[in-house]
Write a structure and sequence with these properties.
Strand content: under 5%
Shape: elongated
Number of domains: 1
Helix content: over 70%
Low-confidence stretches: none
Distance between the termini: 48 Å
Structural class: mainly alpha
Oligomer: single chain
Mean pLDDT: 85
Number of strands: 0
Radius of gyration: 17 Å
């Protein structure tokens, strides 16, 4: 049971960070000096968002398959991990939706694909 929590809690916290990063990344005010966000945070998000997104995706895939295997041996731990995986797939879907929505919006407005105001 504790091993399931050991996998589920950090995964969910990392997923929340990715979701917050996606929301900030696609907010025009974040990229302007008028937004009050530190320049270091903007630089970090510009460099680290997509690698963190990919790490989250592969980590979540690993945990999901692990939960299916645990369902056979340890029913409660597998069920807990499967529920946590479902929540995390929703977080990943929300992050993906935010990023895709903004890029489609940019294309419809005639802007470049990953454009941000400067």
């Amino acid at each position: 049971m504790f091993s399931a929590l050991f996998l589920a809690v950090p995964l969910t916290l990392f997923g929340l960070l990715v979701l917050i990063g996606a929301a900030l990344k696609e907010t025009p005010l974040f990229w302007l000096n008028a937004g009050g966000y530190p320049e270091e945070l903007r630089a970090l998000l510009l460099v680290a968002f997509y690698p963190a997104y990919l790490v989250y995706f592969f980590w979540l895939t690993f945990v999901t398959f692990t939960s299916w295997r645990l369902m056979r041996d340890f029913k409660h731990a597998g069920t807990l991990l499967l529920l946590a995986s479902g929540v995390n797939w929703l977080l990943l879907s929300a992050s993906t939706t935010i990023v895709i929505w903004n890029n489609v919006e940019n294309l419809l407005q005639g802007l470049p694909f990953h454009s941000h105001p400067s």
